[in-house]
Amino acid sequence: MNEILQAKILFIGNKDGDAQQIGWLLSNVTKPAMELMHVPDADAFINQKSAAGADVILLDVNAAYDPDLQTLKSLRAAIPSVPVVVLTDDEEQIGQNAIREGAQDFLLRNQLNSSMMARSLVSAIVRHQGQNKSPESSPLLESATAILNKLPLGVILLTASSQVLFFNDKAKKILDTKDGLILDADRKCRATHSSESKKLTDLLASTLSPESGAPGEGEFAMSITREDSDTPLTVMLAPIGTGIAGKGAVLFVSDPSEPVELSIETICRLYALTPAEGRLALGLTNGHKLDDLAEEWGVSMHTVRSQLRQIFRKTDTSRQSELVKLILTGPAALQASPSII
Fold it and tell me: Are residues 124 and 36 in the same domain?
């Protein structure tokens, strides 16, 4: 990716004083060279559906006048080709929600300085370039997103540094509760408990380092404590290939209190499994451990391990995380839904 040598910033905000302050701050940035444009009327600009040559948009959002971020939503719909950074006084209500609605980043008005603003704006441009979709591939990617949104488990795409690139609707619902897993100000996924957050970081590092040794069963899975529920979340990581974003992983998040209703018959038919093997595959997909399943079914660990080996052989996988990834991104998951207890 080419180094950014200059950037055109479009500030949307109705206060001339803010525009002057931003212009002064950006004038202190020597690299890259930054040019500021100011548009006071957001609606008029959005109606034009033109970015006026801007590389990034800095949008002023006032929680009192736009708590639902309607301006941001309209801007993203009208001009999706340009990244947006939100300027706000409210980190909790506006900043975090803005990222969930498609903003690349947010800046707090009372913490503005030249280096912070420049870093945020340039990073937004770089990330957006990496995520940019060509006109030919856009419909296909939108269809893929729609499919992921049908999955009954949360799917979160992470970089090696735990930064979130994508999450489906189920994952958004989990993150929005801010109980167990959260999306922090740096758009990184972490656990609400610091000890579990470190364990999740270590788990991600292990997932992306297969050379560290053969993984044991359950090595890429962990439980995440929730304050408002006696049942912890179950998460499992699976590595994905390299690309524009670099090495990363997909984080599957399940709520064991809402078991997934997948069709065992469909799983068996798709992967040539026996009914017992299909039952085990579904149990693992729902986040259960081998020893718990063996105890529940009244069979030995030798039996379930033998079944698991057969499942690995038939599905051409070698880890539980790979198996879960295969099932959750395959045809069987598209008809799944949380069971109603």
Answer: yes
Domain extent, residue 16, equals 6-131
**Is residue 248 one of the residues assigned to a domain?**
yes
Give 206-233 pLDDT, tens digit per residue. 877 755 444 444 457 788 999 998 889 9
Contact indicator for 189, 164 with CB cutoff of 8 Å: yes
Cβ–Cβ < 8 Å for 163, 246: no
> Any alpha helices (H) in 87-137, and if so which ranges?
96-100, 114-131
Report DSSP state, residue 220: T
CA angle 304, 251, 269 (to 5 degrees): 45
Tell me, what CATH number does 269's domain have?
A: 1.10.10.10
Q: Residue 118: inside a domain, yes or no?
A: yes
Give me the number of domains the chain comprises: 3
User: Which residue, 108, 131, 154, sits at the end of a domain?
Assistant: 131
**pTM score:** 0.49
Q: Is residue 266 part of a domain?
A: yes
Transcribe 279-310 into DSSP letters. HHHHHHHTT--HHHHHHHHT--HHHHHHHHHH
Same domain, 98 and 165: no
Give dist(CA 254, CA 256) in Å, integer.
6
189-191 and 221-224 as β-strands: parallel, antiparallel, unpaired? unpaired
Angle between helices 275-285 and 301-315 (to 10 degrees): 90
Asked if 287 and 254 touch (Cβ cutoff 8 Å), the reply is yes
The domain that holds 168 is classified in CATH as: 3.30.450.20
Q: Check residue 226 and report its DSSP letter.
A: -
Higher model confidence: residue 210 or residue 276? 276
Based on DSSP, count helices (H) and strands (E) in the chain, helices before strands.
Answer: 13, 14
Residue 158 phi, psi dihedral angles, 5° rounding? -120, 145
**Which carries the bigger pLDDT value, residue 139 or residue 40?**
40
In a domain? residue 303: yes
